[in-house]
Design goal:
Chains A, B: One of its GO terms (molecular function) is oxidoreductase activity, acting on paired donors, with incorporation or reduction of molecular oxygen. Chains A, B: Keywords: Flavoprotein, FMN, Monooxygenase, Oxidoreductase. Chains A, B: Pfam families: Bac_luciferase (PF00296). Two copies of one chain form a homodimer. Chain A has 14 helices and eleven strands. By secondary structure, chain A is α/β, with parallel strands linked by helices. Chain A has a single domain, classed as Luciferase-like domain (TIM Barrel). Chain A has an eight-stranded parallel β-barrel, surrounded by six helices. A two-stranded antiparallel sheet of chain A has the order 5-6.
């Protein structure tokens, strides 16, 4: 089974209180974004299921009425450094913003994680959508959607340049000659761009993977351009197979245009699997979860995803026409399309968003969940999935114990880790050093 | 032995290639600031010796001619998060700059480390001395020595305020009521000061220790004022017992003036112990280390510590009169005093600095090293020591295996960890929450 030409990739989108906004209220739910013991158990389960990635989202603001998973969460690189010690193979992906971080600090954090984990780090390079984040930082005004992407483009280039500060063989550590590092094998970046001036070199040696794997999660026009140029894993939120196929095809065209191999770019839509022993059981569980939603919290989540306040509108009427938001453009468009296509009322829409924040929800038996994943995968709508359990740990254990074996029997996923690093496991090339090629 | 009223505190100043600039060249030396396996072994040794702290310095620039320990080193919070997994009791102290970091990011990183380690985090709050660091960051011009301390004062207050964002009991996680966090137990800081505007709340719950332990390492006038107001461990570099006593007494007076208990402020001078089985062996080892020094590298280190280029002066003449530098004021003054007092030539001074960067070097048998530590401790010049082995791991193993048992027999150090958190172990109080007292 390890000879799969193109195995289905599986990420676990790890989130303290689960992905369903009311998931934590389920009797079986254990939770807490700061509950290290639980998180270690979940990571071990993911590794037992040969998942490719542990994926952590992040945010730079909080409030008492936020999604329970977002109120408090450990800093992702610190958490993944700890998880690197209790896992051996799984990739460790953290989200960090290009809008409110310094490229030097970020390059150093991910290079460190790559060293600590023996080459398993991945960086989800995001722009910060929420204007209120600016209140926590010195930079002043929140940049516009387009500027955020212009900043991200330059930021990522600086970070990749810093990762190439040292040749792979720079640290000769020659006791006899007294030469610790070869001066000629160190590069000073001296970057001066539109947004950043960064001298270098970075004070961490080149990461084991050359560069940590780059993940991109924005699907707007600028987001797709960025993904096509630098993304290796693309995390998306399509609701239908046709949308998924169209997105992946469009992205592949842009990837080729950028001179890259589409085989080195993997599209992973988020999926929230609600699993029951029978279809009726799964349906009942989904109903139970939906029943736990606080309507006031749900409407806040919907406002958040749309970038507009819709609480004044008739809840049993259609989604009103809204101008484009400067916030989450692509995610908002997918939701709007969904509401129009399915003729959803506002109330139906916000209940749906409360489930998995606009990501696809699949409820059913293990067979049915496996079918749903296989269909998208074989249909070219996805290279794999970022699994978003409604609550932890039992719903995720169910996925690993009951769904993964079905996928394995069908020859869709691997039954072992084949490489030493995340890049090896994903079949991604190790980037050459820009300054010390060959 | 656990009833010691005031045990001698021991920190291990962990540094990849050792503290002596040529230590890494010793045949027994293993090294690498990114060599996790070695670092884990050293941490285990420190814990076996019941050390209070693992201490990591840091810097935000590098160059090929830097001290080998500084050329490349992992980001300290990421490294300590990993070490938290392979240790159980020892405190985990990381240096992070108040000059080139955002208070929100820093507060979150250390709160996360405190959660991950079960209450063992400490923050060495430094200002960045080196103007060249500014080249790696957006903030533009490097602030002056006085401004750096004014920034640090405000920065630390913001960080402590952010740590108090949530009451200790804020996260009720009441499944029946559907209340994850009590809205009335969350505080929004809304800080607007001279240097920072930070909204809050922090998106991490209150650290187990309330606040991670605060370490302060500057000994200039502004540095001492800051230490007196907020420092709990003070890391210094005195060369003589009289200097140590005078510093500690002066600090205690300032601590009392600030309304704090001097018993809650521990002064730990750095000491580099060079240990041999006999006095002759220790002397030979020290000579061997000094013989490995590259004079060109040594003069760079001296320039660095003085904040002035002295390479044009006669190496066999005295230290020239130099104007006060804006860089490392207190460390430069200690060195200047030492050169004058001992009539050192420039060459002698730079050989001395190359040994332990201006920290005290003690060479001798285990008994002699223990004597030297005991004398300062009983003489009121220190509450303990930050141990700076010339190279790793054997010189540190020697300290733990041969010196620590002597200190224990003399009733100077503890033979066990008595508390659950670093504060407990150090006898430091848990700070009350500024916004939710009691």
């Amino acid at each position: 089974m390890n000879a799969l030409a193109r195995p289905m990739r599986l990420g676990l989108f790890l989130q303290g209180a689960g992905h369903h906004v009311a998931g934590w209220r389920h009797p079986e739910a254990e939770f807490g974004g700061e509950n290290l013991g639980l998180i270690q158990r979940i990571a071990a389960t993911a590794e037992a299921g040969h998942f490719d990635l542990l994926f952590l989202a992040d945010g730079l603001t909080t409030s008492a009425d936020a999604h329970p998973s977002f109120v408090a969460r450990l800093e992702p690189v610190a958490l993944l450094s700890a998880l690197a010690m209790s896992t051996r193979h799984i990739g460790l992906a953290a989200t960090m913003s290009t809008t409110y971080t310094e490229p030097f600090h970020l390059a150093r954090a991910f290079a460190s994680l790559d060293h600590i984990s023996g080459g398993r780090a991945a960086w989800n390079a995001v722009t910060t959508s929420y204007a209120r984040s600016s209140a926590n930082f010195m930079r002043g005004q929140h940049p516009s959607h387009d500027d955020r992407y212009a900043i991200a483009e330059e930021f990522i280039d600086v970070v990749r340049g810093l990762w190439d500060s040292f040749a792979d063989d720079a640290f000769v550590k020659d006791k006899a000659r007294g030469v610790y590092v070869e001066p000629g094998r160190v590069h000073t970046l001296s970057h001066q761009g539109r947004f950043f001036t960064v001298g270098g070199p970075l004070n961490v040696s080149r990461p084991p993977q050359g560069h940590p794997v780059i993940i991109q999660s924005g699907s707007s026009g600028p987001g797709q351009r960025l993904a096509a140029r630098v993304g290796e894993i693309i995390f998306t939120a399509q609701q239908t197979q046709a949308e998924g196929q169209a997105f992946r095809e469009g992205l592949h065209a842009q990837v080729r245009e950028a001179g890259r191999d589409p085989g080195h770019v993997m599209v992973l839509p988020g999926v929230c699997p609600v699993i029951g022993g029978t279809e009726a059981e799964a349906k009942a569980l989904y109903a139970q979860l939906q029943g736990g939603i606080d309507p006031a919290a749900a409407i806040l989540l919907l406002n958040d995803r749309l970038g507009h306040d819709v609480s004044g509108y008739d809840l049993d009427g259609p989604l009103p026409d809204l101008p484009q938001s400067d916030q989450l453009q692509s995610r908002a468009r997918l939701l709007t399309d969904l509401a129009r296509r399915e003729n959803l009322t506002l109330r139906e829409l916000y209940y749906l968003v409360a489930g998995a924040r606009g990501h696809r929800i699949v409820w059913g038996t293990p067979e049915q969940v496996a079918d749903a994943l296989e269909e998208w995968f074989r249909g070219g709508a996805a290279d794999g999935f970022n699994i978003m359990p409604p609550f932890f740990p039992t719903q995720f254990e169910r996925f690993v114990e009951d769904v993964v074996p079905i996928l394995r029997r069908r020859g869709l996923v691997r039954g072992e880790y084949t490489g030493a690093t995340l890049r090896d496991n994903l079949g991604l090339p190790r980037p050459p050093n820009r300054f010390f090629p060959g």
